[in-house]
Task: structure prediction
Amino acid sequence: MLESAISEVPDPIPPRKRRQTVWAGGHTLRAEWHKPRTQATASLVFLHEGLGSISQWRDVPDSLGDTTGYGVLVYDRFGYGGSARLPIPYERAIDCMECEATTTVPDLLDTFDITNAFLFDHLHLCQATVRIFGALN
Result:
């Protein structure tokens, strides 16, 4: 009885979108990968400010992905959303943005085989975006 009730519930994630847990930056992170609609060679990667989660972007990634046809990657930062929790005493390292730029984002790009990315950023990570750009070039 329960199985038939569950099977009738529609999947809230569109078929083009795949939510998964990945290993990046030394932690498990929840990521959402939107497959490209076209043979586009670029992907949009959404970075996060201090409230670092997929939900903060709302429908922006879907809208831009649908408009451009590009792949879209959004993720919950370590300690936020569905990603691994910060250990007690729940404090981030002083160099957390540096780590995000030099380890986490490159790991995510490798995981999803993204070689040509447009990085979308919130103000808080601007310096991290510059570091990521430098590390990738």
